[in-house]
Amino acid sequence: MIVTTKKLFEAAYGKYAIGAYNINNLEQTMGLFQGCLMSRSPFIIQISKGARTYTHKKMLEAMIRTADEIFPEAVFAVHLDHGDEQTCMECIESGFYSSVMIDASHEDFETNIAITKKIVDAAHARGIVVESELGQLGGVEEHVSVSEADAKLTDPDTAKEFVERSGCDSLAVAIGTSHGAFKFSGNQALRFDVLSEIQRRLPGFPLVMHGSSSVPQEEVARINAAGGALKGAKGVDADQFLRAAELGVTKINIDTDGRLVWTRVHREYFQEHPENFDLRPPGKVFMAEYAKFIAAKNDKLGSSGQLDAVRRMLGL
């Protein structure tokens, strides 16, 4: 069942975080639904601007609708990740998305507010909720690229003003995470002091962490052993997710880790079976491995076992 992120955040706030997982294809879709039902977790499907053009946006929408029929117990939101103004409007008008993110964080403060407010007005008129971003994460994710020098932590003093003036329903904050597989160097870590100050100014308001893949070193090592060349990859400590949830983070975005699982499965499979030319055997392996990955990640987020409570809250 597709719901708004607002409903999921009401259930989760202060207790656990909802996993927001990017998908691009059939195998990821099936593995995601299977893993979330294995762990009895509500979840958020994220569709990026790049995923919408990878084949065709209607293809992804059709797969999600079909998965909703196959797995009627699932409760999830469908969210546009890192949308620009045009893409947000397209998704609002499509009637399929329950949530959109407008990312104008690269603009100055006043322009960010103005663009966000425009999207909020259009989305709320259709019963759709809006995530916005204040501050900038470093790293690379599809069309989003911010150098370490240009990355900016969210200023707690302006977060309250931004939310009040823009009307957004949740706020993505920059607290030390980074997009992509090469997140941290040296002793960088999550800035819980900044997060705590933002929560103090916005009590009860849903916050979002982008760039939160853990980049498991076992996955990196196995990819490299099977011919990969990922050097120095490092991510967010998943054991810090629940601490972030206690401080108001209700949505945690995970994309890179899923790509690592896909890469590991396919590199290992074709290394072990060089004679194979059928895409289905490694695809089946990936769906099972991705489902296990999703279930384990939901354990770290604290969302495992919460599905039945969410269903009761929704009167299902």
TrEMBL record:
It holds the Pfam family F_bP_aldolase. This is Fructose-bisphosphate aldolase. Its cofactor is Zn(2+). GO terms for biological process: carbohydrate metabolic process. GO terms for molecular function: fructose-bisphosphate aldolase activity; zinc ion binding. Its EC number is 4.1.2.13. The lineage of its organism: Bacteria, Bacillati, Chloroflexota, Anaerolineae, Anaerolineales. It comes from Levilinea saccharolytica. The keyword Zinc applies. Zn(2+) 2 binds at residues 103, 133. Zn(2+) 1 binds at residues 82, 179, 210.
